[in-house]
Amino acid sequence: MSDLSAALEIVGSRWALLIVARLMDGPQRYGDLQRDLGVPTNMLATRLRELESAGVLRRLPLRHNTRAYALTERGQGLRPAIDALGRWGAANGAGTNERPEP
Amino acid sequence: MSDLSAALEIVGSRWALLIVARLMDGPQRYGDLQRDLGVPTNMLATRLRELESAGVLRRLPLRHNTRAYALTERGQGLRPAIDALGRWGAANGAGTNERPEP
């Protein structure tokens, strides 16, 4: 398996990188993640479980009856990739719809 | 839409980044892409069409009755993100299954 496919095995599924990017700013509560990302709740629960078992994020102890999540060091290690994808998205993303020269 | 989600709109679907990474080495024929990546043919055809219409790759003129594809400049612009994901995959990917310290 190539290094890239090894990475995508963990963060290649829909919403995964968006969840990790959202946690780069610091721990987030479940409800805030769901509202900010607009991700369906069953999907969010699945992705959080997958990312937790892959050691990318961890669940914080419950406070005021709300679950919160934070990135692990492994999760923080995705910052260069997320920043690079963000730069590409800014220059080429769906919003910039003029077709480039081939 | 965040820059990251704008990028993932185009290259976030399954196989997309693996196809782009495979073309970083140079143009590839359809059959070689399919064999090297092990991607189902209908999925490959769909992803190539999507990536072509997003200006990430282009179809090369037919030679010896085989279709080939090459990255555009926009597609080459994904190299930093693909390299960063590959580095993360090498250090943290599915193969390295020891759980990191939280």
Mean pLDDT of chain A: 90
N→C terminal distance of chain A: 31 Å
Q: Specify the structural class of chain A.
A: alpha+beta
Range of strand content of chain A: 5-15%
Q: Rounded to an integer, what's the Rg of chain A over CA atoms? A: 15 Å
Largest sheet of chain A: 3 strands, antiparallel
CATH topology of chain A: Arc Repressor Mutant, subunit A
The coarse overall form of chain A would be globular
Low-confidence stretches of chain A: 98-102
Keywords (chains A, B): DNA-binding, Transcription, Transcription regulation
Pfam families (chains A, B): HxlR
Protein name (chains A, B): HTH hxlR-type domain-containing protein
Organism (chains A, B): Microbacterium lacus
What would you say this structure looks like, in words?
The structure is a homodimer of 102-residue chains. Chain A has 102 residues and is of the alpha+beta class. The first copy, chain A, has one domain (3-90): Winged helix-like DNA-binding domain superfamily/Winged helix DNA-binding domain (Arc Repressor Mutant, subunit A), CATH 1.10.10. Helix content of chain A is 55%, strand content 15%. Chain A is built from six helices and three strands; from the N terminus they run H-H-E-H-H-E-E-H-H. Chain A has helices at residues 3-11, 16-23, 30-37, 41-53, 73-76, 79-92; strands at 28-29, 57-63, 66-71. In chain A, strands 1-3-2 form a three-stranded antiparallel beta sheet. In chain A, strand 2 and strand 3 form a beta hairpin. Chain A is globular. The model of chain A is unreliable at 98-102 (pLDDT under 50). Chains A and B meet through helix 1, helix 2 and helix 6 of A and helix 1, helix 2 and helix 6 of B.
